[in-house]
Design brief:
By secondary structure, the chain is an alpha/beta fold. Helix content is 31%, strand content 17%. The strands form nine sheets. It has a six-stranded mixed beta sheet with strand order 13-18-17-16-14-15, covered by helices on one side. Helix 22 (556-561) links the parallel strand 17 (543-548) and strand 18 (564-567). Helix 7 (135-151) runs parallel beside helix 8 and helix 18 packs across helix 23 (575-583). The chain starts with a helix and ends with a strand. The structure holds beta-D-glucopyranose. InterPro entries: Cellulose_Degrad_GH3, Fn3-like, GH, Glyco_hydro_3_AS, Glyco_hydro_3_C, Glyco_hydro_3_C_sf, Glyco_hydro_3_N, Glyco_hydro_3_N_sf.
């Protein structure tokens, strides 16, 4: 019997589930809402119902909203459920007014936008936020983002992005929380709470949208939009948990991913959107496609626009972003009996219910408040929080001879194309952010330490590579070659370094080299920047390398040759101030990597929670027939969880209070952490567990807990983790969530590599 079930399940997975239909109706617990929506729907024409499923983009520029073709008229005709890319109270009021005045049934619109890491006050890119390992700060960033967005007329953000990625070739790694499903789930949940608060009735709450459902980060070869083909057991254990955690935290909407999943693209995948999301996970909100996700199914090869539209809505995609496939073809499919009215009714009901629950029918202008926009957006308080959050996201990768922090009156050479740069500070997907409001490193240092003597040299163009330049300039990077030649730029920089005690060199990617459609096959520093760094090394001056980038880079040469390296990602509006805080020791860095830094491209995908293989390599021998490379170490350059501090910490060997665990009880794993250095600081103490023998192979270790603690210099603290049977559960070959009796290793340490170990047994 079990075997048959799992076979059925597997078949469903492989085929994308049962055919069109079979969606369960949402079970509402609000009779008043039911009565309202029933009455409204009884008056709606088919066209108006389909209209609610339509989400066009209405562009915005500095002079006001530019309506994409025919949207005004469609709003008047009741053929639009919501729009995105329109904000400011003035612009939103104009469209909402149309909807509630001109349209027959006066149904208000939703206003969505990519408020991904802040609205106008931009926080660090999401990957950077995750390296803070600080759920309170992350929630706060989402809260501030929601306050600003709702003050600017918006009521729906396309965030959090919780796609697990183990492949830094994929530029969208910058938009998520890295490679770990447990940490990714906690972060997704924290962001949902920050956006939605505890009630949609609140004026400063906005709808969260968990994206991109699902497995988008596992695109083959790290190439954006590419196919995903994945075993169910890997999906359930390694990739699905963050989506589920964000949905369990109450996320009201879900965005479907672009990719093919085991032969059926997500947008038309009934198994994914109905069997799993709604029937297994109990999701009650609505599902939106990604940008033209519906019409792209034609290019995927699923059929013409009519076929793919019918298939998408039947699979469980309720709202069609931009394609207008629903608008143009669903009525025809209905007339031809290719879909039933129940499918359209269900999707329409889900959207109307959301509008009702948000209070939009009671007050369509709930989020339109010019006064709020004036006082709540980009306030000094928000910027101050952004600065703190940015500092907390920075990761100190190397600090030989305690080169950092800098002395307050040092003479420094500040070098690099990102050193006096505002444009790139806010990173990618900072949609409403204004880079002109961002603080450069130069300004940050001057603000913080007026006595610092700074000699500046640009040293290199941000990008010289003609191929990359062409791509990114076509998408708005506006990078122009300096009037000086690359050699002249380097000569200037060398001269500046020679005049100074220390060189602070700010290098990395352009912001636009990260985010959507920015896959890369080489993650070294760009050749012109490397050339600069090598010339500076020749001067013999100590170098601090300050990095800005959207994903892990391959930094093997830099690690071998540069004494201090600070990873600052793209830190947002307050980047320069926060970087100055860290460089000058005003803030002691405590960030820890959430994505492994490989030594070279050939190691990718490289992640800490991998399986063992039958021939594991011990890292030292020259044995041939083991799982290793002959031209590279297996080990990463910087492992998951890694990051230094200006102080040092000792962590005692892990001690268990018992070595036998039973269901319903717990055991304690404890370490003593001591600040043994010269600065007060934070340490993220990390708990990993390995299920040594299982009915299926299990990872060599998995993050199961962490505590970020603050210790004054000389101070110690006992850190205790409680371990129970629930933490040991995983999805087995029948996709049952079980813990199997047997032996487990517990590891505690300051990163996934540097840990001590103990063993316990889970008994029946
Ligand atoms: C992206 C989404 C985004 C949407 C709307 C798409 O291209 O994949 O992440 O939310 O556009 O801007």
């Amino acid at each position: 019997m079990k075997r048959i079930n799992s076979l059925l399940l597997l078949t469903a997975l492989l085929t994308g589930g049962s055919a069109i239909g079979q969606q369960k109706a949402a079970v509402s617990k609000d009779p008043k809402m039911d009565a309202f929506v029933n009455e409204l729907m009884s008056r709606m024409t088919i066209e108006e119902k389909i209209g609610q499923l339509n989400l066009p983009a209405v562009g915005f520029d500095v002079t006001g909203p530019i309506l994409s073709e025919g949207v005004d008229e469609k709003i008047d005709q009741g053929l639009v459920g919501g729009v995105f890319n329109t904000f400011t109270p003035q612009a939103v009021r104009k469209l909402q007014q149309r909807a509630v005045t001109n349209s027959r049934l006066k149904i208000p619109l939703l206003f969505g936008y990519d408020v991904v890491h802040g609205h106008k006050t931009i926080f660090p890119i999401p990957l950077a936020l995750s390296t803070s390992w600080d759920m309170d700060l992350i929630e706060k960033s989402a809260r501030i983002a929601a306050r600003e967005a709702s003050a600017d007329g918006l009521n729906w953000t396309f965030s959090p992005m919780v796609d697990i990625s183990r492949d830094p070739r994929w530029g969208r790694m910058s938009e998520g929380s890295g490679e770990d499903p447990y940490l990714g789930g906690l972060i997704g949940a924290a962001m949902v709470k920050g956006y939605q608060t505890n009630s949609l009735a609140n004026r400063d709450a906005i709808l969260a949208c968990v994206k991109h459902f699902a497995l988008y980060g596992a695109a083959e070869a790290g190439r954006d939009y590419n196919t995903t083909d994945m075993s169910p057991i890997r999906m359930y254990n390694e990739y699905l948990p963050p989506y589920k955690a964000a949905i369990d935290a109450g996320a009201e909407t879900v965005m479907v991913s672009f990719n093919d999943i085991n032969g059926v693209p997500a947008t038309a995948n009934h198994w994914l959107l109905t069997d799993l999301l709604r029937n297994q996970w109990g999701f009650k909100g609505f599902v939106v496609s990604d940008y033209t996700g519906v019409s792209e199914l034609v290019a995927h090869g699923l059929g013409d626009l009519q076929t793919v539209s019918a298939r998408s809505v039947s699979a469980g995609t309720d709202m069609d972003m931009v394609s207008e496939g629903f608008l143009k073809t669903l009525k025809k499919s209905l007339d031809e009996k290719k879909i039933g009215i129940d499918v359209i009714d269900l999707a329409c009901r889900r959207i109307l219910e959301m509008k009702y629950r948000m209070g939009l029918f009671a007050d369509p202008f709930k989020y339109v408040d010019e006064k709020r926009a004036e006082t709540e957006i980009l306030s000094a308080a928000n910027r101050n929080d952004a600065r703190k959050i940015a500092a907390a996201s920075m990761v100190l990768l190397k600090n030989e001879n305690q080169l950092l922090p800098l002395r307050k009156n040092a003479k420094i050479a500040l070098i690099g194309p990102l050193a006096d740069n505002q444009r790139d500070m806010i990173g990618n997907w900072s949609a409403a952010g204004d880079w002109k409001k961002a603080v450069s490193v130069m300004t940050g240092l001057k603000n913080m330490a007026p006595d610092l003597k700074i000699v500046y040299a640009k040293g290199a163009n941000l990008v010289d590579d003609p191929h990359i330049l062409k791509q990114i300039n076509a998408n708005g990077a506006e990078i122009h070659a300096d009037s000086k030649s690359p050699d002249e730029l380097i000569l200037d920089a060398v001269k500046a370094a020679k005049e100074a005690e220390i060189a602070v060199v700010v290098l990395g990617e352009s912001a636009i080299m990260g985010g959507e459609a920015t896959s890369r096959t080489n993650l070294d520093l760009l050749p012109n920047q490397q050339k600069l760094l090598k010339a500076l090394k020749e001067t013999g001056k100590p170098i601090v390398l300050v990095l800005m980038n959207s994903r892990p880079l391959t930094l093997t040469w830099e690690d071998e040759n540069i004494p201090a390296i600070l990873e600052t990602w793209f830190a947002g509006t307050e980047a320069g101030n926060a970087i100055a805080d860290v460089l000058m020791g005003n803030y002691n860095p405590a960030g820890k990597l959430t994505a492994t830094f490989p030594r070279n491209m050939g190691q990718i995908p490289l992640y800490y929670n991998h399986k063992s293989t039958g021939r594991p390599y011990n890292g030292v021998s020259n044995e041939k027939f083991v799982s290793r490379y002959i031209d590279s170490s297996n080990d990463p350059l910087y492992p998951f969880g890694y990051g230094l501090s200006y102080t040092t910490f000792s962590i005692s060997p892990v001690k268990l209070n018992r070595t036998d665990l039973q269901k319903g009880r717990n055991l304690e794993a404890a370490v003593e952490v001591k600040n043994t250095g010269k600065y007060d600081g934070h340490e993220v103490v990390q708990l990993y567990i390995q299920d040594i023998y299982g009915s299926v192979t299990r990872p060599v270790k998995e993050l199961k807990g962490f505590q970020k603690i603050f210790l004054k210099k000389g101070e110690s603290k006992k850190v205790i983790f409680k371990i129970d049977e629930e933490m040991l559960r995983f999805y087995n070959s029948e996709l049952k969530h079980v813990a199997e009796p047997g032996d487990f290793n517990v590891f505690i340490g300051s990163n996934s590599r540097d840990v001590s170990q103990a063993t316990f047994k889970l008994s029946n």
